[in-house]
């Protein structure tokens, strides 16, 4: 006779697939013992820069049972965002994850539907959905549930599809069948470390957040330090370098989520177009986009910094 936990787990994974998720893994909710000293050390070394929010909710960040009452399981999900087409070569670059609509809204809708489907088919299951906006260590949970391993660039990597995907969680008070970790397949490769334009990967598996181009172009609200001039490789919002050079991303396949398709105008913008962009054009091209996070003034600051 099939175990109920196994039955429920299979149902959740099949529903995740139906909703368009790339993959789904499940772990037992509890304190992340291995991550605790790593996170503490990373914060003590100030590798979070001005991202002070990383210091908040330390306990909750490591223990989902403090976020969701009576939490039993963490359901981790991956959603592909690898684009079919990329920006033209004579352009300031933005991270591929920001080509389409803001992923927070796209994924949250899918997660709510997944939770509703669980409640409708399994019964009274309580839980919360998380998309990169709460103190949840999404990469750690995804790795724990066997969806991939955390690579030397600190991204979650998989052998079949690389790393161009979002990670999200559903934390619920339902006992399920738990998946086991996969193995690390970075080997002796140092492609990401060697290619990082600002040497932000300070050691294998350790990224100095305060040196990352994504930090400077998105998180940092003040002026970008002048010593960084000439090191950004034309990245105006985020940076994909450590993913672009990763050998596992040779296996990336383009997504099939219409909401992640870019405004056609975005892909054809030249450097001159970016430099002359008005606030009105910004609003049209980046309507519902994650790029709005930096605001028009932030994007202008980044473009001015990149100009030769």
Descriptive account of the structure:
The radius of gyration is 20 Å and the shape is globular. The termini are far apart. Helix 1 runs antiparallel to helix 4 (103-122). The protein has 2 domains: 4-83 and 94-172, no CATH class; 193-306, no CATH class. By secondary structure, the chain is of the alpha+beta class. The strands form 4 sheets. Strands 1-2-7-4 form a 4-stranded antiparallel sheet, sandwiched between helices. The chain has a two-stranded parallel ribbon with strand order 3-10. The chain has helices at residues 4-18, 35-44, 58-62, 103-122, 138-144, 191-195, 213-219, 241-244, 264-268, 271-275, 279-285, 295-306; strands at 23-28, 73-80, 93-94, 127-130, 149-150, 156-157, 165-172, 201-203, 206-207, 235-237. The chain is built from 12 helices and 10 strands. 39% of the residues are buried.
What is the overall pLDDT average? 94
* Structural category: alpha+beta
Largest sheet: 4 strands, antiparallel
Spatial strand arrangement across the major sheet? 1-2-7-4
Q: How many DSSP helices?
A: 12
Low-confidence residue ranges: none
Can you write the helix and strand succession as a string?
HEHHEEHEHEEEHEEHEHHHHH
* Rg estimate, integer Å: 20 Å
What is the CA-CA span between the terminal residues? 69 Å
Strand content: 5-15%
| Global outline | globular
Beta-strand segment tally = 10
Tally of discrete structural domains: 2
Task: Report helical residue fraction.
Answer: 25-40%
Subunit structure: Monomer.
Cofactor: cob(II)alamin; [4Fe-4S] cluster
Subcellular location: Cytoplasm
Active site: 132
